[in-house]
Design goal:
Structural class: alpha+beta
Strand order of the largest sheet: 1-2-3
Distance between the termini: 81 Å
Number of strands: 3
Radius of gyration: 27 Å
Oligomer: single chain
Number of domains: 2
Helix content: 25-40%
Length: 108
Amino acid sequence: MQCPDCHSTHIRKNGIKKSKQNHICVDCRRQFVVPNQTRRGYSEAVKRECLKMYVNGMGFRGIERVKGVHHTTLIAWVKQVGERLPDAYAPDKLPQVGELDELETFIG
């Protein structure tokens, strides 16, 4: 990595700005952000596979052990997918017959 001004390779990290790593040149003291940093994270294929495992009944910790993805990340993915699902629909017709179970409690 080189400084955009003086082309020095004596570079240090200098915090994070807008979720991107900020750098500073030790020689000319110019601060800059490297423009084409690769995005970190899991691929869509890994997300899809983990969500499929969850839908098929596997628990968060089990998926964590198998795939190496932290369980809180899995919970966030499930919440994101759940927000995109439509709300429960209202039935068009109300049922004519209802069923009610009796429950009695005895206090002695």
